[in-house]
Every structure is written in C-alpha cells, then in structure tokens.
C-alpha cells in the first residue's frame, strides 16, 4: 500500500506539490492526468525517493520513504519506475540491460538473472531481441524493454510516467497493450498518461492534477462522465 | 646532388638499438596511459564529488597539466621534486611527467563526455535500486569511455611523442634518447633522426589502427 | 618568502626569453593558421582521393615528435641543402607546418559541422559556391572551430619550449641558463611555469566559454 | 672558401658550451665568459673580425656547425676518430684530465668506488663515453647522460646521482663556486688525457690550416698560459704534444 | 511553366525516380503525396538543379535545367524552395537571413533589400522579429522566415517539401495558413505534404507518388473521393 499524506514539494521558490493526499491499495490501477507542469512526474519521483520532499510523508508498505533510516536502494527494488524517455542503457544488449540490476543489486548469479530476464522480456514480447543493442530497436521496443527491466526486480509497485509520450503514434499501441496486460495480472500501478482512452478502460480510479493540487479523484466513469472541477472540465474539453 | 653524402648504412646498423628504444618508448606510453586513465577517472570523481578540497585538488591538477609545457612538467618531476628530496630516476621522472599530463587532459575529456550522457541515465539506474557508485560504475562510466575513446587515442599518440622529452632528464633508453646518444657518438644527425622519425610514425599508425580495431570490437552499439 | 640571488638583470633576461616564446608563437600561429585554412578547404573540396598526398604529409607532422622535426629540419636545411637559416627561422618554419597540420583538421571539422541542408538552402537561393563559403560556411564553421583553434594556439605556445634544440633561447631555455648560474631550480622553474600558466589559463578559459556559449544555439 | 667568407662577412661565429666552467659560462649579467670565449675572441681578433658566441649544449655543437649556424667550434670538443668522420678537427688546443666527483655521504675513496653506483655525465662527451663503457663493463650500477653539464651537477647535488666524471677544471670550478653544496673531488679518472680541438667543416682545409697555426701561435706567444692562469689558476697548462708521433 | 519529361534519377544502384512526366502550369497549386522514400523530395531537388538527373529533362519557363549551358544560380532565383528542416542561417538575424541573397545574388543595395525583406516578413507575420536571431524563435516562425527568405527573391515558382513535418503540432497551422495565403495570391506552387486536409482544400491537382512512379494525378475531389490506384487506396486508408 502506498500512503501519501499532505506531501509538499518545492524546487527553489516554486511550489510544485501543494499538499497531496492519496492512498493506493494493493492491486489498484491509478491513472494520473493533468496539464503540463502540474506536478505529476514530481510526485512519482518523490514516491521512490529520487527527490526529497519538503513536508508530509510517503509510506510504502509501512516504510516511510523519506525517513533518514530508510535504505532507499532497498526500497527502490520494491518500486519499479519507467520514464517518458526510454533510458535504455545503450552500451548493453537488451539482455544485459535487464540482467544488470538483478545481478549487481540483488546479487543474482548470471544464470539466475538471465532466467528472470528472459521470462520478463518474453512477457513484453521481446523474447527474440536478447542480443540486440537498444539503439537498433524502435522506441516502442525500447520502452517495453524498460518495462521488462523494471519488472525483473520483482517490484510490488510499478510507476509509469507518460511512457508513450515520446513514441511515434504507430508504436503507442504496443506499449499500452503491455500496460493493460500488467494491470490484468493484478500489478499495483500508478500511470501518468495523456491517453484518455487508456485511462478510461484500465484504471480503477483516475486522479486529476492541476497546479500542484489533486483537484479531483474518482473512478473513470464518474470522472470522465461527470467532471466536477471546472479546471478538469476545461482540460477534458481541450483533449477530446 | 646535395653536397652531403648520406651514410644510411652506418645509421641502419644501429637500427636494432633504436628498436629496443622504441620498445621502451611504447612501454612508457602504455604505462602512462593506463595510470593516467585511472587517475583521470579519480579526478573526474573528485570534481563531481562536491567536496571543496577534492575539487580544488582536481582542478589545480587539470589546469596546471593543460596550461604548462609538457617539457616543463617532466623537468619539474625530475629537478623540481628533487628540491623536496624526492629523487626519481629518469625513467620514473619521464613516466610521472607524462602521466601527470595525460591525467589532466583525460580528466577534461571525461568531463566533456559526461556532459553528453543524460542525467536520466543515472536516474534510471538509481531507480533500479543501484547506489550512486554502482550507477556510475555500470552505466555512466562505460558510456563515458566510449565517447572519450577518440580523445583517448589522441592522448596515447601524444604520450608516445612526449617520450622524446625524456632526454632533458637524462633518459637514454627510449627511442629519442638512444638516437640522441648515437648522434653524439657519430654526428650522423640527419640519417639517425630520419630513421627515428619513421619509427615514431609507424608506432603512431599502429596505435591508431589498434584503436580502430578495439573500438570496433568494444563498441558494437 | 624566497631568499634569492635573482637580480633585475636576470629578470630582464627571463623577460627576453618570454618575448622570444611569444614572438615565435605569434608568427607560427599566424602563418600556420593561414596555411591550415588553405589545406583544410583544399582537402574538403578535392575529396579524399586527390587530397591523399596532402593528408599524408600533414599526418606526418602530427605523428613525429616536434623535437625530431626540429632536428631534422635543422639538419636538412643546413647540412643537406646548405641553406644558412637562423635557428629562429627554422623554429618558426617547423612550428608553422606543425600548426598548419593540426589547423587543417580543425578547419575540415568546422566545415563538416555545417549541415548539408543549410548549404543546400543557401545554394537554392542562388548563392554561388564562393558566396555560400564566405557568407554561410565560414561564419558557422568558425564557431565550431574557434575553441579548438584557441587550444591549438596555446598548444603551439607550450610546444615552442622545444625550439631550444635549434639554439633559440626562449623562456624555458633562459630559465635553464639561470638555473645553471644561480642553482635555484625550484624557484626559477616556478617563475617559468607561472608565466606559461598566466598566458595559457585565461585564454583556455575563454575557449571553454565560447564553446559553451556557441554550443547552446 | 670559408676562411674568405668569414673575413668578408666580418663576423666569426663560434659554438661555445656555456655551462662548462671555467671553459664557458655566464657572468652575473648573463654574458658569456670563460677560456673558450676568450679563445674565440682571440681567433676573431687574429682574423680581423668580430666574434659572435653561439651557445650550444654539448650534443648540439656539431649539428649547429653542420646546419651552418656557426663557423667554428671552440667548445672543448674531444678529437675522436668517430667525429673526425663528420667534421674537420684542428690540432689540440687544450687537454683535460678528468676527475671523479662524488656527493658527500657516498662512500668512495677512489675512482673504482663508482662501481655499482648511479653515475652520470654530459651526453656525448669524452668522459661520458668512457664512463658508460665502464658501467657496462662492471655490469652493475646505472649510467645517466644529461643534456648539459649543469644538469649533471644539479643532479649530483640534489642526490639524483652518486658520482660523476668531469674535467678537473670543471670539477674544481664547481666545487669552489659553492653553487653545488655537498660535492667533493674524490680521485682522478684513469683516462688518457682528453685532447680537445677546434673544429669546422671537414672539407675546409684552408680554415683548418689557419686554425692549426693559430693554436700554435697561442702557445708560442704565451697567450695559452695566460688564459690558463686567468681561468684555471696557478700552475702549468697541459702539454699539447704527444710523444713518439707527429701531428 | 514547369515541364517534367520522363525523368529518371538514381542514387548509386537505387533508382529513385523511374520516369516521371508532369506539367505544372502558371498559377497552379500542385500537391504531392506519397509514402516515405517514394521520391518526392528528390523530384523537388531535381527541379531546381540541386541534384543531377540520369535521364529525361526538366524545362522551367523554356530553360532546360540540366543543360550544360544553363546558369543554375540564375535559374534558382526563379524557383524558391523551402525544406522540412528550417535551415535558418543561425549566425544572421531574421532580417539579415532574408536580405542576404537579394544583396549578394541580385546585387540590391542594403536599403532596397531591406525594403523587400520587411515587406515579405510582414507578409508572413514576422514584421516584429527583424532583429531577432532565428534560434530564439519557434519552429513555425523559423519556417515562415524561410518562406519569406525564398519569396524575397521574387521567384516565379515555389517548392515546399513537407514544410510542416518537423513542427510541433501546435505550430503547423500558422505555416499552412501562410501557404494558403500564397496560393490565394496566385503563386505557382508544388507542395509535398502529409497534411491531407490541406491538400484537399488548397490544391488544383494532387499527385500520388509510389516507389519512384507517379501512380495517380487528379483534382483533389477525384483523387480523395474515388482513388483508382490500389496503392493510393491503401495509403489513404492508413492516413485517415
Ligand atoms: N529538477 C527540477 N528543478 C526545478 N524545477 C523542476 C524540476 N523538475 C520539475 N520542475 C518544475 O516543476 C514543475 C512540475 O514539473 P513536473 O515534471 O512534475 O510536471 P508534469 O506534471 O510531469 O508535466 P509534464 O506533463 O510536462 O511532464 C514544472 O514547473 C517544472 O518546471
Ligand atoms: N543523397 C542521397 N544519396 C543516396 N540515397 C538517397 C539520397 N537522397 C535520397 N536518397 C534515397 O532516395 C529515396 C527517395 O528519397 P526521397 O527523400 O526523395 O523520398 P521522399 O519521398 O521525400 O520520402 P520522405 O517522405 O521520407 O521525405 C530514399 O530511398 C532515400 O533513401
Ligand atoms: Mg512529466
Ligand atoms: Mg522527403
């Protein structure tokens, strides 16, 4: 369970998160939508402790992320995250990209790590690309590899930050299908996305961010069908 | 035609000695590169560490190495350090001087290369649970070395050429030292140094070819 | 701080050495750059095949130690051709070619850095090759090349320390002469090093600044 | 020929080694002085021209001549047969004996004490060639050639070298000068006296003849002894003739 | 009038144009559509002589482009071309970008050239950007500047090669509006584009290229309404 309580976050004098309260239950799929600069990405990087916060607390499975005593490297193994930029490690093959963290962080043997990696890569449909370098692959394939790479650490939670935004329109589908598959398998997920159709179909709840505030949160039917917040109404009108 | 009789035969008779010198030259160049790379990585880490003292040490090193003549650095390693009671043999003085120079230039190259690697790469590594050091070691450094590979090759060439400065600190076993010693004996300056020039040229070509092969083997992405 | 026997006359002596260093550098860099630009443009223009001989010669200047180049030029001009050139002339001549060899590379890199599409756009406006070269390529290539060129000029200044071998008493040689007489190696070497540093460092910084500034747009 | 050229040009350019006291050095205005400098001036005066001193490190003496940068060498150059293949030597104008100089604190009572030590000398000199040969013969110790005589003594006083071999004159001058603290003359080196000659281009017989006569005149007129007293000190200058053979 | 007769063009062994026949009349707006690599760009660069051809001929206002005797620099003044990449000269201000060719090629005085330039820049809506450097402008503005730069030479023909493809979707509109304006003013234009809506509205005729062949050419209503070529049908199905 991810519990976010009154989280504040500023970059210098710019307050990016202005007191966010949110709880994500095991097995839930939460989608986050909102305009550019509303703080969506920042929230995700705070959840896995890549960014410090200025107030409030975030608790993942009972562990407070920003407590001094928390071993962040350990915590992050629980929380997979995939970014808009594919962030493939260009100097490693697909297989090596995926086995690197299990071997170096979890201390798996090469054989063990490869077994896990092949399983996850096959899962996302890249079972035939093991020896290929990422730069030889399409953006969609790179992004699916990034997902497999995160999954190889057997995380309890997955965070997705606009994973389709940097993709050619032709390639968006294959990545969204991968996310759908994960959702159907019961993975707990927070997905920041601009794909409204996807949000509507897959999410248990949808949260709308506006200027650092979570302006509305509701099941998709309700949020899209009867938006209450005036900013959300504007936002939906513009994106439809 | 020139009013000067070339005596290539005599000079060529010295070829074996000069080739021995070429081996020493190669040895110094390779050693100074290997140690130089290690030091340059350290200096790079120092400069990024955020520590004022480490940063100042690294910056001073890099700037002095890049802004004074290599000959000066080698002379300093021999006669300058001796003023502090540190006595280095000519071989070690030359090695120290060139290594100092290599490390300074390479550290600057590495810094440029690091700028070309997006911060998001480190982030991706960290979010997989890697420590900062692991992220640097497994993700950033390999990419940095690739980007800096061509400058590294050039530095290696310069290291070879810099060995010629060893004569000023009493070095007589490297290619230039051997040639200069033979020159002092026989004064067939032109012939001897022409042969040395050809050997240096060939060494440089071998290095460049080897670098191309290594790059091709290593960087298949 | 230092208890030294250094006299004003000695300082003047050092200053004269420094002056020689600077003059040799200025002459070589000026001539070498002009030649280097010519070589660079020729190499780019005639294509790799026709440029091969030139490429080879320039490559030799980059692959043989400067000391050997100086010794050989000295021996060749004097012994073989029996030309009575001063050491200063030999030093400037060799350093000029040395500069040109590196400069040609920089120029070629600069020209190649101008996108082909930009040059096409210029040509489709009706500009001739010359007009394209002077109005578009040169200004853009200069931005790419200037930082490396500054680096090269400073490199030549530092390498000019080697011209002592043809009996030119530049800064480092002057320092050695004083060390012989005064036996204060460390102090004198520090002065000498500081001189190089004070000229090189600000210019190197300027190069870095220009590089950063121009790579932004 | 060269002799005419020199007279016509009005200057005589001499290669002189200026870190080789008392033969060549600089005064505190950094002007060249010494035995060789005076000798060059005398030669110029005899020719009726002005002298120009060109400083050359030891290894560069002959290249400077070959490159046409100087007309003659007055540079304490040993008249080896190897070198005579390249340049023309006059009769000897001076003869050195060599001394072993060691650093204080290095145990050494005679020249054989150098065995196994780190020794050095000026690259390309007579004594360097001898010393390197000895080190090879001993099969232990290390030989380091430096480019200038000054660097050798600097290295010796700094402790980079244990001992060196240099001409008695140079050794005494350096020990006396106090510039190099902590060095002492140990012993004479057992070498044939190092005869040094003026040199010029090999084919310039006219000039070589002139040089030979000039050396002869210097001795005859007492100028040789005078210069010896001025630069080296009291005593007899070395005999420039060899018993039992002409030349 | 641009007459293209049986033009063949190869790069090495790759035949990119396999005999193109096409005539564009004065005042006509021709749009060229087709898949990637079908030879559209190549045709344009052949028309203004930037590329040599291997067979056939191209005649512009009675002058054969690839004849030896043709002064290409002169001919190119007649034919403006704007590329996908904006190709602004980054070291010159907007005004200098536009005045360069009139001054150097047409030999105009500075004042004259600036008058022309200001007129054209105002025309494309950049009258207030004269002293600005192109790198400080949006892609759309840079592209409009490139159009003004070509127009400043008073060309009789304008060739546009996917001038909106490298633009942010937000900025496509402003550039298309500029093209529409030119079309309405009677400029003879060949536009390579992927913007079907634009092609339909503005063109007199639309040509469809496929693998180096002009597979179909017809007025937009006919070509979009009743495509005959099976490849064109596929192409339209994919892009709609
Ligand atoms: N490292 C940083 N330093 C300073 N400001 C930052 C930093 N990261 C983000 N910001 C600022 O914080 C604000 C919120 O950024 P964030 O990336 O969270 O928005 P977002 O909702 O993800 O937007 P988008 O949809 O564009 O990705 C923005 O104004 C951004 O400029
Ligand atoms: N300079 C060149 N050298 C070699 N091949 C080239 C060159 N320019 C284009 N080609 C090739 O010619 C073919 C046609 O290219 P062209 O650019 O004309 O296509 P296009 O229809 O404009 O495609 P796009 O919509 O992608 O711009 C392509 O296969 C391309 O790879
Ligand atoms: Mg974001
Ligand atoms: Mg195209």
TrEMBL record, chains A, E:
The UniProt entry's GO CC annotations, sorted and at most eight, read: plasma membrane
Xref: SUPFAM superfamilies: P-loop containing nucleoside triphosphate hydrolases
What is this entry's stated membrane topology?
A: Peripheral membrane protein
Q: Where is the ABC transporter domain?
A: 2-236
UniProt keyword Protein biosynthesis, yes or no: no
Q: Where in the cell is it found?
A: Cell membrane
Q: Which domain of life does this protein belong to?
A: Bacteria
The alphabetized UniProt keywords are:
Amino-acid transport, ATP-binding, Cell membrane, Membrane, Nucleotide-binding, Transport
For this chain, the family text in UniProt reads: Belongs to the ABC transporter superfamily.
Q: Which InterPro entries match?
A: AAA+_ATPase (IPR003593), ABC_ATPase_HisP-typ (IPR030679), ABC_transporter-like_ATP-bd (IPR003439), ABC_transporter-like_CS (IPR017871), MetN_ABC_transporter-like (IPR050086), P-loop_NTPase (IPR027417)
- Any Pfam family hit: ABC_tran
This protein is called: Polar amino acid transport system ATP-binding protein
The principal location of this protein is membrane
Q: Name one GO molecular function term.
A: ABC-type amino acid transporter activity
UniProtKB/TrEMBL annotation, chain B:
Q: SUPFAM superfamilies of this UniProt entry?
A: MetI-like
Major location (coarse): membrane
Gene Ontology molecular function: L-cystine transmembrane transporter activity
Instruction: Spell out the NCBIfam families in the cross-references.
Output: HEQRo_perm_3TM
Q: How does it sit in the membrane?
A: Multi-pass membrane protein
Write the protein's name: Amino acid ABC transporter membrane protein 1, PAAT family
Subcellular location per the Swiss-Prot or TrEMBL entry: Cell inner membrane; Cell membrane
Q: Which InterPro entries match?
A: AA_ABC_transptr_permease_3TM, ArtM/GltK/GlnP/TcyL/YhdX-like, MetI-like, MetI-like_sf
As for family, the record states: Belongs to the binding-protein-dependent transport system permease family. HisMQ subfamily.
Q: Does the keyword Transmembrane apply?
A: yes
Record-annotated ABC transmembrane type-1 domain positions: 22-211
Recorded GO cellular component terms are: ATP-binding cassette (ABC) transporter complex
UniProt keyword Isomerase, yes or no: no
Q: Which Pfam family name is an example for this entry?
A: BPD_transp_1
Recorded hits in PANTHER family, A to Z, give:
L-CYSTINE TRANSPORT SYSTEM PERMEASE PROTEIN TCYL (PTHR30614:SF0), MEMBRANE COMPONENT OF AMINO ACID ABC TRANSPORTER (PTHR30614)
Q: Provide this UniProt record's keywords sorted from A to Z.
A: Amino-acid transport, Cell membrane, Membrane, Transmembrane, Transmembrane helix, Transport
Give TM segment ranges: 24-46, 147-172, 192-215
Instruction: Please indicate which superkingdom the organism of origin belongs to.
Output: Bacteria
From TrEMBL, chain C:
Q: Where in the cell is it found?
A: Cell inner membrane; Cell membrane
Residue stretches spanning the membrane: 20-42, 87-107, 144-166, 186-204
Domain ABC transmembrane type-1, which positions? 18-207
Membrane topology, from the record: Multi-pass membrane protein
One Gene Ontology cellular component annotation? ATP-binding cassette (ABC) transporter complex
MF (Gene Ontology): L-cystine transmembrane transporter activity
Keyword set, alphabetical order: Amino-acid transport, Cell membrane, Membrane, Transmembrane, Transmembrane helix, Transport
Q: Give the protein family.
A: Belongs to the binding-protein-dependent transport system permease family. HisMQ subfamily.
Among PANTHER family, the record links this protein to: L-CYSTINE TRANSPORT SYSTEM PERMEASE PROTEIN TCYL (PTHR30614:SF0), MEMBRANE COMPONENT OF AMINO ACID ABC TRANSPORTER (PTHR30614)
Name under which the protein is recorded: Amino acid ABC transporter membrane protein 2, PAAT family (TC 3.A.1.3.-)
Biological source species: Paracoccus chinensis
């Amino acid at each position: 369970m991810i519990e976010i309580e009154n989280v504040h976050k500023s970059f210098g004098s710019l307050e990016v998160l202005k007191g966010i309260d949110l709880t994500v239950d095991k097995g839930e799929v939460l989608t986050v939508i909102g305009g550019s600069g509303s703080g969506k990405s920042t929230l995700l990087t705070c959840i896995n402790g890549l960014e410090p916060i200025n107030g409030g607390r975030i608790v993942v499975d009972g562990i407070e992320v920003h407590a001094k005593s928390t071993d962040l490297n350990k915590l992050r193994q629980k929380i997979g995250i995939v970014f808009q930029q594919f962030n493939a490690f260009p100097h490693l093959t697909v297989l090596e990209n995926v086995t690197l963290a299990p071997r170096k962080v979890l201390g798996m043997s090469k054989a063990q790590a490869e077994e896990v990696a092949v399983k996850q890569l096959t899962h996302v449909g890249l079972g035939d690309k093991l020896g290929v370098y990422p730069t030889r692959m399409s953006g969609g394939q790179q992004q699916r590899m990034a997902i497999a790479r995160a999954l190889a650490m057997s995380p309890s939670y997955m965070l997705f930050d606009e994973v389709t935004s940097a993709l050619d329109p032709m390639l968006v589908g294959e990545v969204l299908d991968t996310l759908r598959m994960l959702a159907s398998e019961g993975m707990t997920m927070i997905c920041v996305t601009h794909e409204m159709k996807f949000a509507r179909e897959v999410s248990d709840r949808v949260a709308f961010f506006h200027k650092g505030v979570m302006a509305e949160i509701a099941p998709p039917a309700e949020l899209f069908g009867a938006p209450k917040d005036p900013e959300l109404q504007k936002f939906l009108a513009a994106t439809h | 035609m020139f009013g000067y009789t070339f005596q290539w035969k005599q000079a060529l008779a010295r070829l074996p000695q000069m080739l021995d010198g070429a081996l020493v030259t190669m040895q110094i160049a390779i050693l100074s590169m290997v140690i130089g790379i290690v030091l340059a990585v350290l200096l790079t880490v120092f400069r990024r560490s955020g520590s004022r003292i480490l940063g100042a040490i690294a910056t001073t090193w890099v700037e002095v190495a890049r802004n004074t003549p290599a000959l000066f650095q080698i002379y300093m390693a021999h006669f300058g350090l001796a003023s502090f009671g540190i006595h280095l043999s000519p071989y070690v003085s030359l090695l120290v001087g060139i290594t100092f120079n290599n490390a300074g230039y390479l550290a600057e190259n590495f810094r440029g290369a690091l700028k070309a690697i997006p911060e998001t790469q480190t982030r991706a590594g960290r979010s997989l649970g890697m420590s900062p050091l692991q992220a640097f070691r497994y993700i950033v450094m390999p990419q940095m070395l690739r980007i800096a590979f061509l400058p590294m090759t050039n530095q290696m060439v310069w290291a070879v050429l810099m060995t010629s400065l060893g004569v000023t600190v009493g070095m007589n076993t490297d290619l230039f030292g051997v040639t200069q010693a033979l020159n002092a004996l026989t004064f067939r300056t032109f012939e001897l140094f022409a042969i040395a020039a050809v050997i240096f040229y060939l060494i440089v070509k071998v290095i460049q070819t080897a670098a191309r092969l290594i790059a091709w083997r290593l960087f298949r992405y | 701080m230092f208890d030294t026997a250094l006299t004003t006359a000695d300082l003047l002596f050092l200053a004269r050495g420094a002056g020689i260093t600077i003059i040799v550098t200025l002459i070589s860099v000026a001539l070498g750059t002009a030649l280097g630009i010519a070589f660079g443009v020729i190499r780019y223009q005639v294509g790799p095949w026709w440029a091969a001989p030139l490429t080879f010669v320039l490559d030799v200047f980059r692959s043989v130690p400067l000391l050997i180049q100086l010794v050989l030029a000295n021996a060749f001009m004097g012994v073989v051709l029996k030309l009575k050139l001063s050491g200063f002339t030999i030093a400037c001549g060799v350093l000029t070619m040395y500069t040109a060899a590196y400069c040609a590379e920089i120029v070629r890199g600069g020209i190649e850095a101008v996108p082909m599409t930009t040059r096409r756009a210029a040509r489709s406006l009706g500009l001739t090759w010359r007009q394209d070269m002077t109005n578009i390529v040169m200004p853009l290539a200069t931005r790419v090349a200037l930082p490396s060129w500054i680096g090269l000029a400073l490199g030549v200044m530092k390498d000019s320390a080697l011209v002592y071998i043809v009996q030119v008493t530049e800064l480092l040689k002057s320092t050695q002469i004083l060390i012989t007489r005064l036996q204060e190696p460390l102090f004198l070497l520090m002065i000498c090093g500081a001189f190089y540093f004070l000229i090189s460092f600000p210019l190197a910084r300027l190069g870095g600044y220009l590089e950063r500034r121009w790579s932004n747009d | 020929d060269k002799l005419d050229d020199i007279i016509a040009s009005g200057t005589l350019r001499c290669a002189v080694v200026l870190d080789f006291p008392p033969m060549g050095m600089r005064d505190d205005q950094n002007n060249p002085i010494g035995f060789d400098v005076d000798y060059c001036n005398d030669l110029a005066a005899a020719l009726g021209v002005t002298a120009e001193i060109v400083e050359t490190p030891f290894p560069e003496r002959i290249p400077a001549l070959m490159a046409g940068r100087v007309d003659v060498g007055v540079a304490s150059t040993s008249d080896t047969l190897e070198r005579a293949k390249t340049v023309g030597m006059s009769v000897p104008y001076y003869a050195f004996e060599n001394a072993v100089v060691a650093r204080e604190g290095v145990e050494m009572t005679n020249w054989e004490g150098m065995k196994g030590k780190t020794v050095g000398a000026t690259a390309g000199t007579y004594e360097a060639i001898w010393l390197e040969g000895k080190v090879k013969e001993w099969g232990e110790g290390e030989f380091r050639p430096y480019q200038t005589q000054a660097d050798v003594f600097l290295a010796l006083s700094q402790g980079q070298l244990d001992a060196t071999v240099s001409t008695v004159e140079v050794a005494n001058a350096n020990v006396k000068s106090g510039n190099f603290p902590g060095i002492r003359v140990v012993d004479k080196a057992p070498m044939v006296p190092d005869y040094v000659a003026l040199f010029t281009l090999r084919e310039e017989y006219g000039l070589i003849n002139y040089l030979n006569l000039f050396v002869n005149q210097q001795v005859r007129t007492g100028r040789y002894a005078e210069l010896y007293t001025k630069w080296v000190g009291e005593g007899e200058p070395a005999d420039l003739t060899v018993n039992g053979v002409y030349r």
